[in-house]
């Protein structure tokens, strides 16, 4: 399947399992544009689709950070934006990485926008604050956010059966 098809299937699985999923609700284009501006990069296409349709979610113990703002201060963005900016500040994480999930052991899954392909997809890598070094080769977890999210969600759902 393509990265786009993987993302569509991931979103479908989350919605089909709404009894065990928490969905924040989709982001509008203005919020996505503000996230890109604060991060200083363009988000991968499958991640943008996730943001548009789900906003942020967790399903069967798998939490995928989205982008959101509080009603009282729409300029401060949380979720992936806050986690990314914090990792850049505290662990010298490269500016091309966008954090969207914790690995549960201190590591951060991130999209490497510096390695985006011609279709606008970025591979998913593992950044380990305190262990990873800028410029080093990072563990590659998937070719795209869509592929990563689909695989993790299928595995989590299978573990519940």
Automatic annotation (TrEMBL):
Residues 26-151 form the Knr4/Smi1-like domain. InterPro entries: Knr4/Smi1-like_dom, Knr4/Smi1-like_sf. Coiled coil: none annotated. This is SMI1-KNR4 cell-wall. It comes from Micromonospora chokoriensis.
């Amino acid at each position: 399947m393509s990265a786009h098809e993987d993302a569509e299937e991931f979103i479908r699985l989350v919605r089909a399992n709404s009894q065990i999923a928490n969905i924040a609700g989709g982001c509008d284009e203005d919020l996505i544009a503000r996230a890109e501006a604060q991060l200083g990069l363009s988000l991968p296409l499958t991640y943008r689709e996730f943001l548009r349709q789900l906003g942020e979610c967790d399903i069967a113990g798998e939490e995928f950070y989205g982008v959101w703002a509080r009603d009282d201060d729409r300029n401060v963005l949380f979720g992936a934006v806050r986690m990314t900016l914090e990792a850049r500040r505290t662990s010298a994480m490269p500016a091309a990485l966008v954090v969207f999930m914790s690995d549960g052991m201190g590591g951060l899954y991130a999209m490497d926008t510096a390695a985006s392909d011609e279709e606008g997809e970025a591979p998913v890598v593992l950044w380990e604050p305190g262990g990873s070094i800028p410029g080093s080769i990072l563990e590659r977890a998937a070719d795209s956010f869509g592929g990563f999210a689909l695989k993790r969600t299928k595995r989590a759902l299978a573990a519940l059966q």
